[in-house]
Structure formats: structure tokens, C-alpha cells
Design a protein that fits this description.
Blueprint: H1 9-17, H2 21-34, H3 37-53, H4 57-74, H5 77-91, H6 97-114, H7 117-134, H8 137-153, H9 157-173, H10 177-192, H11 198-217, H12 223-243, H13 246-262, H14 266-282, H15 286-302, H16 306-331, H17 340-359, H18 365-391, E1 413-420, E2 425-431, E3 440-446, H19 450-464, H20 472-484, H21 488-493, E4 498-502, E5 527-530, E6 549-553, H22 567-577, E7 581-585, H23 591-597, E8 605-613, E9 622-624, E10 629-631, H24 632-644, E11 651-656, H25 664-671, H26 673-677, E12 681-685, H27 691-705, H28 713-725, H29 733-736, E13 739-743
Parallel strand pairs: 1-4, 4-5, 6-7, 6-8, 8-11, 11-12
Antiparallel strand pairs: 1-2, 2-3, 8-9, 9-10, 12-13
Helix pairs in contact: 1-2, 2-3, 3-4, 3-5, 4-5, 5-6, 5-7, 6-7, 7-8, 7-9, 8-9, 9-10, 9-11, 10-11, 11-12, 11-13, 12-13, 13-14, 13-15, 14-15, 15-16, 16-17, 16-18, 17-18, 19-20, 22-27, 27-28
Length: 746
């Protein structure tokens, strides 16, 4: 006897066949409302799959969390395993590879115990995709081959075809192009054996994309691969048109447009792209919409239609801003190193580039400033999205109500915004304004593109950490000539004493204080601060006159980290400078004790003298305590409530922090640490510093900060750095340069 409600599943499956996943999700929801027990769980899992197809990953995870409780209450091991498998597949879309793998392997173990071959096949497909992305070539191939074999043998041709397509992708990721070609042929036959519907059309598209990848990545660059891609797109177009699947039709036409774009057949490419765009609008597929808006912008720019191209790019950025959290979650998964910036960052920077090109022909001063500000704001939007992507939350939005025009923060500070573009680097220097005359942006074009600039920066960072040589000076002087010399006369004419850098890419990994003009370091001329973005600083003067400080750290060697004996003197000196303090050292410096201290009156300064590590993966970033670790999430939970209560932490100091050379994403995390924690500014290091030198600089920094003269944080750091630089023992920048004031420098 068929359970009540299961008759309704026919309409859900029909909706899936034609690619209408919104209707499918709705129909599966109706089924779930009419049945109980195993049948309800099965219906809800089908609904989850439909929602995943729509990209609604937050709803998927929330639904699965509730479904897990429901499945466990039934006591049915298989249903619990199915839910865990679905959770694992969904967690893959948030770059949490280890968590996803754990869930999938747990589900796989249960499936093998119960000999549930269908579930084994499904889990092995998802696990294979995950392992391919994380670099386990052998594991990926084995899992996907088993998935394809089991699915074909036990009556799941759609899963068998998907697994074959994924196996071809894994072979390509491993660089085994002959094997990839063979698997693509097998995948294509499997796809064509499916009923004429969404799954068949979608798989044909997937195979088409892989044939295009073969053309680009295989050394032979066989143009036959591109022709096959176009033919498969046409096949998908035909099926999608027949079944009324506008979502797949949009994808197929858009991909055909990109193939024509590569061939420089721009009118044909634009026509196809516009058709794809109209369809994406019709089905409200924002994920496709921004792609075709971006593609049309590129094509129009190539045709010399710059102003029309700018409008297309603006629409693409606006679409992305509406879905950027979902895009960050969805696209941070396919490869271990992927990120929001890698996937869509070019949209923002290509728009900024076009706007700056437009500025070349503008004579009106007001209009010129407006265009420069829009270009800068476009880059700012990407920086905000990058931090949301890195931290996997929208912490940056908490600052929106506290922003202030950065040009007017200080009459003596200038902000240097650096935009490395493919063929040049743009310097946007924000000079302070007055009551009578508002601040303005000065624009300087440097004739060096991002690839060459990055190469110099990489060598600079590596040489800076070698204290036995002065090889860093070559790159130090090159960077000074490129980035500082073009604006130096402007800085002098405006009486600037503080330079705030908003760096990008590889420039985030190096200290600007160590740039050298041939005679002096930059820190000998200016106070220096760094910000992850103009809109990511909580503005306003510092509130450090009557501070309450929390001092914590380690002198002991714990958890395989070396001792920091000089920290003891550092802490003793801080205690004298700030009598209103709470101190937790060594055995007392534990997560639970830190949490207890934060339950009272909010602190003004939190100083942590302990090993810290900022990783490209935020979950691997930490500050070492005596027996455990404080994550950046832990710091946020402790510090953020003060900000929300309008009693923000003024300064978070991490005096023994480290980021890896060449790791731009980790440096992004260091730059955003104040934003994440809810502090107005952070004082941190790019690499581990000599213990004695660190203690001296830290003590001098805080002494200057409490001086009656009322130094800003940037000025206090400048004085401390210059004092260490004057000491022959510590004159090399590896000792004094890695210290950064991040965020509010006042």
C-alpha cells in the first residue's frame, strides 16, 4: 500500500526532470507534511537536494540540523547515515573540508555495515569530489570509481553518470590528461543514456566545461576539444528548450558565448550572452545573472564600448553584493585554495580599471573626483567581501554605523590606497581636507603591473626575515621608488606626518615601514598604519587616557612552543604603566580564566604576549594559552559585546604573532583581526620577533602611548621602532619592521 502523500511525489519528480527545483522543493515539502517516520525523512532529504540545487545552502544546513534530531529519534541507523551524508555534502560548500570528510566517512562506515549500496555510491561520489579538491588524487579516484560502479550496477544511472563526470574532473586535477579524456568519453555515454531531462542536459554541460578545460590545460591545446564543448552546449540547448528548463538553457547559451568570446567573435558572443542574461533574469538565478552581466561587460570592453561596459559591470557587482555570502560559501569549496576573490574578484577590479580609464579623459575636477571615488569604493566592496569570506561571517557589517569620512580624520594623515592592476599600479592618495576645502584624492599611475610587483614583494618579504644579510635593500628601494617617490612631494606640501596604507594582494604581507629611499627607512619619516579597507575602520579619536588593561601571556615553553622569557619584563613594565590591570600569566592564562575576566567592566586594552598564528584557513588561526588555544572566534565572543554596548576595545595587542611569507590570505586575516574581534585597532606582527627586541619595542610603544604629549598609536609605534633601529644590535628591519598598527591609528 502506498503511504498517503507519496502519490504527490510524482509531481515533485516531474519538476526535477524539467529542472524546476523551486517547484520540486515545494512538492517534497507537501509530501513530508502528509507522511511520518522513514517516509517523512526521505521526503525531506529530497527537498534538501532541491534546495541545494537552488543554492540555498543556509536553509539546507538549518533543515539538516533539525532532520538529524528527527532521524536519531527513530533509531534507524540508515536514516541517520543518510542525513549525515547530506550534511557532509553540504558542509563541502563552506570550505570546511575536514568537517565534511568526517561526516561523510561516518556515513560511509554505517552504509558499509548495513550493506546499503545506494548510499555507499552516493557518499563515495561526494567524498571523491572532496578528496579531489584537497589534493588526495588516489583517494579521489578510488572513491569515484567505486561510486560509478555501484551506481551502474544497482540501478542509479544518473549517479553513475555524475560519478564518471567527477572522475574525469579528478583525473584532470591530477594532471592525467589521457585518463581524463577516456573518462570524459565514458561520462558522455553515461549522460546520453539518461532520459531527456534536466539531469542529462546539466551533465552534458558539465562534460562540455571539462572538454574546454582540456583545451586550455593540456599541452597540445587541441582545438577539437573546444569544438566538442560547443557541440555539447548545443545538445544541452536543444534538450533545455524541449523541456522548458530555462536555468540550464541560460547556462548553455552563456557558455557558448564564452567560447565565442575566446575566439574574438564578439558580436556572436554578445548576442548569446544577452540571451543567457535574459533567461537568468526570468528564472531569478542571481548566480548565473552576475556571470552573464560580467561576460557582457568584458565583451563590450573588448569592442571599445567602455561606457556601456561599465554599466554592465556595475550591474554584475550589484548582483554579487546581493548574494556575496552565498557565493563565498558555494565557491570556497571546489579547490583547497579557492576563495571569493579568486572566483569573482576580477569583476570588481576590472570595473575599477575601466572607471580609472574613464577618468583619463575627464577635465572637470568634481567629476574626476567622483569617478576616482567610485573606483576606490568598488575595490572597497571586494575587501569587505574578502573578509566575510575569510572569517565566514558578516562581522564587517557591524562597523557600518560607525564609519566616518577617512579624509577628515586627521589634518596630518594621508591614506594611500594601492590598486595593482594587470598592466599598471594605481596609487590613490587621499589628502586631508579642512572646513573650507574638503579632502581630495590624488591619482598617480605607476607603470608596473601586478605580476612584476608581486615578484618584487615576494623577494622583499623573504629577504627581510634573513637578519644576516642586507639583500632586502634592493627590493626595499625598488618599492620605495614605485610606491612612495611618486607621492612624496604631495606629502611634504601638505605637512603629512602619518601614512595609512590600504594595501592589496602580496603587499599585505610586507611592512611598509621598511621601504628605503637609499638613506632612510620610511618609518624615519612618517608614522605608519595599515587598514584592510577605508570602510573597515571604526573612526574617531582614541580613548586611552584612563585605560583598563588586561595583560596575559606565557613565559613557559608549552605545547611544543618555545619559551618567551623576556615576556616577564614586558609584563612587569606594563603593570607599572597601567595600574588598572588584570594579569593572567602562564598557568593562569587559560581560556576559562580569560572568559571569567571579561564578565566584568570592559577592557580598554587587551595585551596578549604569547605565540600566535594567522593561517590562510581561519579555523587554524589561534593565540596560544597555557593548555589550549584561543581562536579568533573566541576573541570575538569576548571582545565584541563591548563594541555592541558602545564600549569598544581600543587596542588588541598580539605581540608574538606570525603569518607565513607569501600567504596573502593569511595576511588578509591579520589585517582583519581587529574587525573580527570587535576592536578599534590591533597591534600585531607579521612574523615572530626576537624575544628581547620584542620586549624592548613593546615597552617603548606603551610608554609613548601614555606620554602627556598625547601620541597617536601610529606615532607611538614610530618612536618605538626608531629607537630599536638606532640600536646597532637590532638595526636590521627583521627586528623592528614586522610590527603593525592595524585599523584606527589615532
Amino acid at each position: 500500500m502506498i503511504s498517503p502523500g507519496w502519490a504527490d511525489s510524482d509531481s515533485a519528480r516531474a519538476a526535477e526532470l524539467r529542472g524546476d527545483f523551486s517547484a520540486a522543493a515545494n512538492e517534497w515539502g507537501k509530501v513530508a507534511d502528509k507522511v511520518k517516520g522513514d517516509a517523512r525523512i526521505e521526503a525531506l532529504l529530497s527537498r534538501v537536494q532541491a534546495l541545494r540545487e537552488l543554492g540555498q545552502h543556509k536553509i539546507v544546513m538549518e533543515t539538516l540540523a533539525e532532520l538529524e534530531k528527527e532521524a536519531k529519534s527513530t533509531g534507524a541507523e540508515l536514516r541517520v547515515a543518510e542525513v549525515q551524508a547530506a550534511q557532509g555534502a553540504s558542509v563541502m560548500f563552506s570550505r570546511q573540508a575536514a568537517d565534511a570528510e568526517a561526516l561523510l566517512r561516518t556515513a560511509l562506515a554505517t552504509a558499509r555495515k548495513l550493506k546499503a549500496r545506494g548510499l555507499i555510491a552516493q557518499v563515495q561520489n561526494d567524498l571523491g569530489v572532496l578528496l579531489s579538491g584537497t589534493g588526495d588524487k588516489a583517494g579521489a579516484a578510488s572513491a569515484l570509481a567505486e561510486s560509478a560502479s555501484l551506481a551502474a550496477k544497482y540501478g542509479s544511472p544518473e549517479l553513475a553518470a555524475r560519478a564518471r563526470r567527477n572522475l574525469a574532473d579528478a583525473r584532470m586535477n591530477a594532471g592525467d590528461f589521457p585518463a581524463a579524456r577516456k573518462e570524459l568519453d565514458v561520462a558522455l555515454r553515461a549522460a546520453r543514456s539518461l532520459p531527456e531531462g534536466h539531469e542529462r542536459a546539466f551533465l552534458l554541460l558539465g562534460v562540455a566545461h571539462l572538454f574546454e578545460r582540456l583545451f586550455h590545460e593540456e599541452p597540445a591545446h587541441d582545438n577539437a576539444m573546444r569544438r566538442r564543448a560547443f557541440e555539447l552546449d548545443a545538445e544541452a540547448v536543444k534538450i533545455a528548450t524541449t523541456i522548458g528548463d530555462d536555468r540550464v538553457l541560460s547556462l548553455a547559451l552563456g557558455h557558448q558565448g564564452s567560447l565565442y568570446e575566446f575566439e574574438k567573435k564578439l558580436p556572436e558572443a554578445l548576442a548569446l550572452t544577452r540571451r543567457a542574461l535574459e533567461l537568468a533574469q526570468r528564472v531569478r538565478s542571481a548566480d548565473s545573472l552576475y556571470r552573464w552581466q560580467w561576460q557582457s561587460g568584458r565583451i563590450l570592453a573588448s569592442q571599445g564600448e567602455r561606457d556601456v561596459a561599465i554599466e554592465a559591470y556595475r550591474r554584475a557587482v550589484a548582483t554579487l553584493e546581493g548574494i556575496r555570502n552565498d557565493v563565498a560559501i558555494r565557491h570556497g569549496n571546489r579547490n583547497a585554495g579557492s576563495s571569493y576573490r579568486q572566483v569573482v574578484g576580477a569583476v570588481y577590479y576590472e570595473l575599477a580599471d575601466l572607471l580609472l580609464q574613464r577618468a583619463d579623459g575627464i577635465k572637470d575636477a568634481g567629476e574626476f573626483q567622483t569617478v576616482l571615488r567610485e573606483a576606490r569604493a568598488t575595490a572597497e566592496a571586494l575587501k569587505s567581501a574578502e573578509l566575510e569570506d575569510y572569517f565566514q561571517d558578516d562581522c564587517v557589517n557591524l562597523l557600518r554605523s560607525k564609519q566616518r569620512n577617512v579624509e577628515n580624520l586627521s589634518e596630518k594623515a594621508a591614506v594611500l590606497y594601492i590598486l595593482p592592476l594587470p598592466t599598471r599600479t594605481e596609487l590613490l592618495l587621499s589628502l586631508p581636507g579642512t572646513k573650507e576645502k574638503p579632502g581630495r584624492i590624488e591619482r598617480i599611475k605607476v607603470p608596473m603591473g601586478e605580476p612584476q610587483l608581486t615578484e618584487i614583494v615576494r623577494r622583499f618579504r623573504l629577504n627581510l626575515e634573513i637578519r644576516t644579510t642586507n639583500e632586502f635593500l634592493e627590493q626595499s628601494r625598488q618599492l620605495y621608488k614605485l610606491l612612495i617617490e611618486p607621492v612624496e612631494s604631495l606629502l611634504k606640501s601638505h605637512g603629512i606626518d602619518t601614512l595609512v596604507f590600504v594595501p592589496d594582494g602580496a603587499l599585505r604581507t610586507v611592512p611598509m615601514s621598511a621601504l628605503n629611499d637609499g638613506e632612510k627607512f620610511l618609518v624615519e619619516k612618517y608614522s605608519i598604519a595599515v587598514s584592510p579597507g577605508l570602510d573597515l575602520m571604526e573612526s574617531g579619536p582614541a580613548g586611552l587616557r584612563t585605560p583598563r588593561m588586561m595583560i596575559s601571556g606565557l613565559t613557559d615553553a608549552v605545547q611544543n612552543f618555545q619559551a618567551l622569557p623576556a615576556v616577564q619584563r614586558e609584563v612587569e613594565r606594563l603593570g607599572k604603566l597601567y595600574p588598572q590591570n588584570e594579569t593572567l600569566m602562564n598557568n593562569d592564562f587559560m581560556k576559562v580564566r580569560v572568559t571569567e575576566k571579561f564578565t566584568g567592566e570592559p577592557f580598554t586594552i587587551v595585551h596578549i604576549a604569547s605565540h600566535g598564528h594567522i593561517d590562510s584557513d581561519v579555523r587554524k588561526s589561534f593565540v596560544l594559552t597555557h593548555a589550549d588555544k584561543l581562536t579568533l572566534d573566541d576573541l570575538e565572543k569576548l571582545i565584541r559585546p563591548g563594541q555592541l554596548a558602545d564600549k569598544p576595545l581600543e587596542l588588541l595587542t598580539l605581540s608574538a604573532c606570525q603569518t607565513a611569507a607569501g600567504d596573502d590570505r593569511a595576511a588578509l586575516g591579520l589585517g582583519g583581526v581587529a574587525v573580527k574581534a570587535g576592536a578599534r585597532s590591533a597591534f600585531a606582527t607579521l612574523w615572530c620577533v626576537n624575544d628581547e627586541a620584542s620586549a624592548m619595542l613593546i615597552a617603548d610603544f606603551y610608554t609613548e602611548l601614555t606620554a602627556p604629549a598625547g601620541n597617536t598609536k601610529a606615532q607611538a609605534l614610530q618612536t618605538a621602532q626608531r629607537r630599536l633601529l638606532a640600536n646597532p644590535r637590532y638595526a636590521h628591519p627583521c627586528f623592528w619592521a614586522p610590527y603593525l598598527i592595524i585599523g584606527n591609528w589615532l
